[in-house]
Structures are given as structure tokens and as C-alpha cells.
Specification:
There is one protein chain. The protein is mostly helical. The chain folds into two domains: 12-110, Rna Polymerase Sigma Factor, Chain: A (Orthogonal Bundle); 120-214, Arc Repressor Mutant, subunit A (Orthogonal Bundle). The protein has ten helices and no strands. Helix 2 crosses helix 3, helix 3 (31-51) packs across helix 4 and helix 7 packs across helix 10. The longest helix has 25 residues, at 171-195. It is elongated, with a radius of gyration of 20 Å.
């Protein structure tokens, strides 16, 4: 394969965000808008789920882009910007949780779900909201290690390698944590189906972490 075709193949594997970040790192100030448009919505949704506060999530994303701007000269060409940006947000979220109590963050809750059941029949919309509320509570009661791995893989859609980079752990550990989280969530769902537990009763029933795969 020639050098030209290799470069073309590499460029083809890069995302729009990766290419925008490389242009921005090379001094193209106009590339920031494309980078922001690609990353900001995903980072904001992630931060909102972590913090349960829209205003806190907005502050975190703003700080994350300030850090991206400050570190743009040190960005490794050819690297993926998505896990790097998630890792920045993840660290900022942890720092904010340490500085501010959970109750203080919840004083400004995220309004409604991330997606609305618009256009759905009333019964279907009600079922969707109840299911979403149950899942949110189940996720909240998982240990942070399991919840973070599960959300990065199953909600954010990151690869195992990208999630490992964000969390600073091995790929194998990401798989184990995500498996245990999924198992615990499934147990919680099956228990509610058997007992008819309502969403309002969920807080009194802790979700148990599952055993890792052998």
C-alpha cells in the first residue's frame, strides 16, 4: 500500500470530531465550531446523567472545552478526541461531586428525561416514563464503578477501549464492570416484575452487584 493510500485510509477512519480537533490543534480557529458541534451535545448528556443537574452539567462542559483549548497544542495527531474529551468531563464531574454534596447538585435537577415520548399514546408514554424512572433509580443505586462502565458502553456508545481510556482501567475490567452492572439491573427489573414494586418503592430496595463472568 502506498503512503498516499495509507493516509487516505487513516483519514477515512477518523471521525468529524477527530479531523476538527487536528485542524484546531494546527491553529485553525474556525475548526472549533465544528469540534464543539460534534462533542458538546454528547458531553452535556453524559454530564447531566452523572450530575442530575443541567446547570452543573453546563458548567462542566464549559470547563472541559476550556481545558481542550488550553491543551490543543499537546493533542497527539491521529489520536481519538472522543475518549479524551470524555475523560476530561469525567474528571471534572468527580471533582465537582467531591466539592459539592449530592443534595446540593439535586437542588437544580435535570428537567424531564433526555428524550421525550412525543407522539406516543398516553398509556405508552406513561409506561416509557415509568420504565425510564426505574432504570435511572437502578443505575443510581449501583456502585459508581459499575455505573460508569455501563453508561459509557451502553448509553454513551463508547467502545471498550475508549471506555477503558476514560476510566483509566484495563479493557478486561471495563467488560467485567459492565457485565456486573447489566446483571444487577436485570435482577432489579425481574424483581419488580415478580413483586409488582412501584417506582416510588424502589429506593428502599438496593440493587445487588452481580458476580463477574468466569
Amino acid at each position: 500500500m502506498t503512503n498516499g493510500s495509507s493516509a487516505a485510509g487513516e483519514a477515512g477512519r477518523q471521525s468529524l470530531a477527530d479531523r476538527a480537533m487536528e485542524r484546531y490543534a494546527d491553529g485553525d480557529a474556525a475548526a472549533f465550531s465544528a469540534l464543539y458541534d460534534e462533542l458538546a451535545p454528547r458531553l452535556f448528556r453524559f454530564a447531566t446523567r452523572q450530575l442530575r443537574s443541567r446547570s452543573a452539567a453546563e458548567d462542566v462542559v464549559q470547563q472541559a472545552f476550556l481545558q481542550i483549548h488550553s491543551a490543543r497544542d499537546r493533542f497527539a495527531r491521529g489520536a481519538a478526541v472522543l475518549p479524551w474529551s470524555y475523560a476530561i468531563v469525567f474528571r471534572l464531574v468527580i471533582d465537582l461531586k467531591r466539592r459539592r454534596g449530592r443534595e446540593e447538585l439535586r437542588a437544580d435537577p435535570a428537567e424531564g428525561g433526555e428524550q421525550q415520548a412525543g407522539g406516543a399514546a398516553p398509556d405508552e408514554a406513561l409506561h416509557w416514563k415509568r420504565s425510564e424512572a426505574a432504570l435511572r433509580l437502578d443505575l443510581e443505586r449501583l456502585s459508581p464503578a459499575l455505573r460508569d462502565a455501563f453508561e459509557l458502553l451502553k448509553v454513551e456508545g463508547l467502545s471498550v477501549a475508549e471506555a477503558a481510556e476514560v476510566l483509566g482501567i484495563t479493557r478486561g475490567m471495563v467488560k467485567v464492570r459492565a457485565y456486573r452492572a447489566a446483571l444487577a439491573l436485570r435482577k432489579g427489573h425481574l424483581q419488580r416484575e415478580r413483586t409488582g414494586t412501584s417506582v416510588l418503592e424502589l429506593d428502599a430496595q438496593p440493587v445487588q452487584d452481580g458476580d463477574p463472568p468466569r
